[in-house]
């Protein structure tokens, strides 16, 4: 499969100097991945003795990129960040067998119990454990190394579930207890601490850097410490190209590109949406204007609704989940077989449920997952989570289970501290999912539609599942 041909402002970005660090922020469908791939191929051809690295967070997207670039130069590599990190630490003798803790939830629970025993009358320690998990992950992704820095840093990204500065000492003590427990159990790292380990090791590393150019696609999924570590892995005469979504705000803190490791950076913004037809584009724009869709004003882009006319998204109200699944099956089965389609859902359990029902009915499909095989252009129906679809595109996207009581659930509201904070967490995933569709979106729900979708009924074609 060949690369798409850049057009409009994409061409200007394509021919920027290879030696400059650049940041390209764009709306969904603005061609960020296209530019990243074309620039990477050109760099690999122009510098055959140097290694050019494309990095992304999503392993499903890597399979798609490998499919597109199957005839690319041999010095062009495509990896996800954690594979790069493990490989680098291993090359430095810092990666033992089973060195990475796969899930830290149990140890954080142990750490929290220890701190509760120390401060039995402290109410802040009674908050939902998932808030502690989320905050510890944030501390690690920001590369915060001491309590004083944590207490002083500006922390955005929380609404009703904010943590008062005076209470941060307790959260940091839980974090320290967790790290102590992790080390005692023989784990050097977890998935969120590994970027700091790479950064610290790279500071000590005076050998020649392996990569001349690093291009980061879907960069909004990279933490500040990931970016800082990459700045230490690229050669001095090379550069980093960062491609990210318009809603880029790095992990709930307004930090500069310089502090994320990118010096003398040139920032470009792409406003035009080349992927979605007008109906999909209007819905995506309306989602991005919802009050809980948080975005740093400095990175905000006024997206241009696509010129190509297309139908409004179809929204189907069902009486119960059984009817919802039957409606979904009928819509998928009766859609044009030549069109690429994706059913996107919130959890892996939802994926497995739909996959098993489709398999029973003989509806062929491929599951989007990190260990999927080689991408095949003949696979017309995919099922996956919102996360697994990042960076991909399909003719038609189905979004089932978009009910108010499920998006979000009561458990998720408790996990994030409030309904508003839960909506903040999920709204960008819905935005990503809607914008995977080139021409059409079909949404199903039971009883009441989620607040994650705009109330403006003019954006949709409405019908009942039993009509």
Automatic annotation (TrEMBL):
Keywords: ATP-binding, Helicase, Hydrolase, Isomerase, Nucleotide-binding. Pfam families: UvrD-helicase (PF00580), UvrD_C (PF13361). It catalyses: ATP + H2O = ADP + phosphate + H(+); Couples ATP hydrolysis with the unwinding of duplex DNA by translocating in the 3'-5' direction. GO terms for molecular function: 3'-5' DNA helicase activity; ATP binding; ATP hydrolysis activity; DNA binding. It comes from the Bacteria. Its EC number is 5.6.2.4. GO terms for biological process: recombinational repair. ATP binds at residues 26-33. This is DNA 3'-5' helicase. It comes from Enterococcus mundtii. The lineage of its organism: Bacteria, Bacillati, Bacillota, Bacilli, Lactobacillales.
């Amino acid at each position: 499969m060949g690369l798409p041909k850049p057009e409009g402002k994409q061409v200007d970005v394509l021919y920027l100097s290879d030696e400059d660090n650049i940041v390209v922020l764009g709306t969904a469908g603005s061609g960020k991945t296209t530019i990243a791939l074309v620039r990477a191929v050109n760099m690999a051809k122009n510098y055959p003795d140097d290694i050019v690295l494309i990095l992304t967070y999503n392993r499903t997207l890597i399979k798609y990129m490998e499919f597109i670039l199957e005839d690319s130069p041999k010095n062009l590599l495509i990896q996800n960040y954690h594979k790069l990190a493990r490989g680098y630490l291993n090359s430095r003798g810092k990666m033992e067998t089973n060195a990475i803790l796969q899930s830290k939830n149990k140890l954080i629970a142990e750490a929290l119990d220890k701190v509760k025993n120390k401060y039995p009358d402290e109410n802040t320690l009674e908050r939902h454990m998932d808030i502690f998990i989320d905050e510890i992950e944030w501390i690690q992704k920001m590369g915060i190394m001491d309590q004083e820095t944590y207490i002083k840093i500006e922390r955005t990204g929380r609404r009703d579930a904010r943590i008062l500065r005076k209470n941060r000492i307790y959260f940091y003590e839980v974090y320290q207890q967790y790290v102590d427990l992790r080390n005692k159990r023989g784990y050097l790292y977890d998935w969120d601490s590994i970027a700091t380990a790479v950064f610290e090791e790279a500071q000590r590393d005076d050998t020649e850097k392996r990569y001349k150019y690093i291009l980061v696609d879907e960069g909004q999924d990279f933490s500040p410490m990931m970016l800082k570590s990459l700045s230490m892995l690229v050669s001095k005469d090379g550069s980093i190209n960062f491609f990210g979504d318009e809603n880029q705000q790095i992990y709930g803190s307004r930090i500069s590109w310089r502090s994320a490791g990118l010096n003398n950076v040139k920032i470009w913004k792409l406003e035009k949406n080349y992927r979605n037809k007008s109906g999909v584009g209007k819905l995506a724009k309306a989602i991005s204007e919802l009050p809980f869709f948080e975005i740093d004003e400095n990175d905000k882009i006024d997206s241009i609704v696509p010129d190509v006319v297309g139908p409004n998204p179809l929204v189907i109200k069902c009486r119960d989940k059984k009817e919802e699944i039957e409606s979904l099956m009928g819509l998928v089965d009766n859609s044009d077989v030549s069109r690429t389609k994706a059913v996107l859902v919130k959890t892996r359990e939802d994926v497995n449920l739909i996959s098993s029902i489709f398999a029973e009915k003989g509806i062929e499909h491929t599951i989007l997952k990190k260990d999927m095989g080689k991408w095949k252009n003949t696979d017309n129906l995919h099922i996956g989570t919102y996360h697994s679809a990042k960076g991909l595109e399909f003719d038609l996207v189905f979004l089932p289970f978009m009910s108010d009581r499920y998006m979000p659930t009561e458990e998720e509201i408790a996990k994030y501290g409030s309904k508003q904070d839960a909506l903040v967490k999920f709204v960008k995933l819905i935005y990503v999912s809607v914008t995977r569709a080139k021409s059409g979106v079909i949404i199903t729900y039971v009883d009441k539609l989620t607040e994650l979708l705009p109330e403006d009924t003019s954006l949709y074609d409405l019908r009942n599942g039993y009509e």
